[in-house]
Amino acid sequence: MSKVEKDTETWREELSEQDFHICRLGGTERAFTGEYYATKTPGVYHCKCCDAPLFDSDAKYDSGSGWPSYFQPVDETSISKRDDYSHNMHRVEVLCAHCDAHLGHLFPDGPQPTGLRYCINSASLRLEVSE
Questions:
Q1: Residue 96, annotated as binding a ligand
Q2: β-strand pairing of 60-61 with 53-56
Q3: Contact 77, 102 (CB under 8 A)
Q4: Is 23 annotated as a binding residue?
Q5: Which residues are catalytic?
Q6: Closest CA to 34 of 60, 10, 8, 71
Q7: CA 34 to CA 24: how far, in whole Å?
Q8: Predicted confidence (pLDDT) per residue in 35-78, tens digit
């Protein structure tokens, strides 16, 4: 999949106000309010901005954090990471590798086999349900 590049105004027109704030400006939704935080429906979670597959429901688990959490992406090349020093702390930001949409953050407190917790905003995702 090639890199998706659009100007800010195009993204603003294509996304809802909340989705634009989260995906393009690095915002976050309130805990326990997102569409997918408690979803157990099988399928693949895609990027809301560019439709790239990001996380499989088989890697989803209830972290108790109030956001959808996954222990691994569908493929390491589907996401990118960068240091985030906002809010007077160091975190690792998770982005869609195809369009640079802000997805959430990565923490080292997840379950095995990876020990990782990809804490992702529902507003950054679209679930493609498995038949």
A1: yes
A2: unpaired
A3: no
A4: no
A5: 119
A6: 60
A7: 17
A8: 999 999 999 999 999 999 999 999 999 999 999 999 999 999 99
pTM of model > 0.85:
yes
Contacts 24+ apart (CB under 8 A), 43-46: 43/127, 43/128, 43/129, 43/130, 44/74, 44/127, 44/128, 44/130, 45/70, 45/120, 45/125, 45/126, 45/127, 45/128, 46/125, 46/126, 46/127, 46/128
Q: Where are the domains of the chain?
A: 8-129
pLDDT band at 18 (very low <50, low <70, confident <90, very high): very high
Closest CA to 127 of 75, 54, 74: 54
Identify whether the C-beta of residue 108 lies closer than 8 Å to the C-beta of residue 15. no
Estimate to the nearest angstrom the gap between the alpha carbon of 37 and the chain centroid. Answer: 11
pLDDT at 25 over 70: yes
CATH topology of domain 8-129: 2.170.150
Give yes or no for residue 131 having a pLDDT over 80.
no
Tokens 């990782």 appear where? 116
Please name the amino acid found at residue 106.
Answer: L
Residue with tokens 């569908």: 74
- Nearest-angstrom CA–CA distance, 91 and 49: 23
